[in-house]
């Protein structure tokens, strides 16, 4: 077991089979327990659970399938809410290439954010089939994860 506490996140999806395909195939998540209305995934050691909701209730919860808002960060409008992972640099690069090859539409294209500043990082945003925003990032120097200017 990891010495770092693992997080648990439950999120809405409108199609469990599409969620299964996306999280297993693109992100490489192992599937855990499931039911007709939910499925657990091993999200790089963390537990995420896709809960089936009707498209109309998911849309209502997120404002007609839109984000609650966005924050302007280093020249980009970052969708809120979102979730994701901090990967190793090579793993981030491999995922970016895999997402491009799969024809994933990026909300924010793979790029380097905060170039030459504290917390410089590679980042990309895309959505799952139910519209949930995900961010994947990497730091060349992981000591910079919580760096301040």
Automatic annotation (TrEMBL):
Membrane spanning stretches: none
Residues in VOC domain copies: 5-139
GO MF term set: dioxygenase activity
Keyword Oxidoreductase annotated: yes
Assigned keywords, A-Z: Dioxygenase, Oxidoreductase
Superkingdom in the source lineage: Bacteria
Classification via InterPro entries: Glyas_Bleomycin-R_OHBP_Dase (IPR029068), Glyas_Fos-R_dOase_dom (IPR004360), VOC_core (IPR037523)
UniProt signal peptide: none
Protein name according to UniProt: Glyoxalase/bleomycin resistance protein/dioxygenase
Taxonomic source organism: Tepidicaulis marinus
Upper classification of the organism: Bacteria, Pseudomonadati, Pseudomonadota, Alphaproteobacteria, Hyphomicrobiales
């Amino acid at each position: 077991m990891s010495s770092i506490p693992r997080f648990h996140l439950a999120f809405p999806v409108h199609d469990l089979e599409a969620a299964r395909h996306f999280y297993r195939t693109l992100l490489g998540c192992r599937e855990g327990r499931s039911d007709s209305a939910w499925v657990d995934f091993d999200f790089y050691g963390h537990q995420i659970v896709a809960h089936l909701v009707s498209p109309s209730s998911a849309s209502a919860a997120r404002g007609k399938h839109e984000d609650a808002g966005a924050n302007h960060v280093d020249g980009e409008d970052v969708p809120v809410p979102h979730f994701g992972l901090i990967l190793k640099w090579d793993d981030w690069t491999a995922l970016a290439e895999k997402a491009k090859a799969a024809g994933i539409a990026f909300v924010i294209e793979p790029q380097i954010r905060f170039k030459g500043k504290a917390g410089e990082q590679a980042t990309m945003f895309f959505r799952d089939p139910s519209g949930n925003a995900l961010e994947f990032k990497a730091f060349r120097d992981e000591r910079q994860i919580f760096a301040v200017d």
